[in-house]
Amino acid sequence: MDTTSTRYYNEIAASYDADYKTPFWRMYNEVTWNYLKDCLPENKTDSLVLDAGGGTGLWAVKLAKLGYRVVLTDVSEGMLDVAEKKVVAEGLSDRIRIINSDITDMRQFQDNAFDLVLAEGDPVSYCSAPQKAIKELSRVCRKAGYITVSVDNKLTWMKRSVERCDFAAVDKIMSTGIAMMPTTENTGYPAFTFTIDELEAIFRKNNVRLVRTVGKPVFAGKHDLEDEDIYNKLLEYELRYASVRWLAATGGHIAVIGQKEY
Asked: What is the mean pLDDT of the chain?
């Protein structure tokens, strides 16, 4: 991950979980869980899950509570410090192993080490080399194991940049796929953005068979999600339609789910 982004996540680690406890992110996480639960290994006792770039441990903790053994990695020590406190508080130290690791170079893990590999929360977008990251995610996954990757949507970044009349950003995204994420220092750090086709192509290149593509979210937008009736109706639509390909392409983020072939 770019050093600017690593520093940024170290700085915001203490407030990260609180900042993401909004109705919008609750819906985002419900959409994520809707496909993750379909990827879970049947044998909890003998399975091992990798939560790569897992930050403060949202999914690692959830999976460990279900009985899975999880390895949680992230390049930000600040985020992992928060995760460790959470793991200890939840009494999950025997099920979650925490390792400081760059998603683009996971040489500490052997080939075919994990039954399920997650890269949720867009670590592939925020790392230094997305194609290397996905190659590593595939390498460490066992044959027929599921791999899920979420990224920033190129279409969404393009639309935002056009709405701001930031034509320099539009040109950069079109030519390089890179957008700039804002930080507390207003310096920004690079985020690699993708279309569904681009992300699927990288999966295929790395021996991963496509299973599902999801937009996250595709309907929430600017609606008042504090209104429970509106929230529930939009969540119903998200869970029903977010995997429709043409709708998934409009999501703020996109996720691709696949199975390693060999």
From this structure: 94
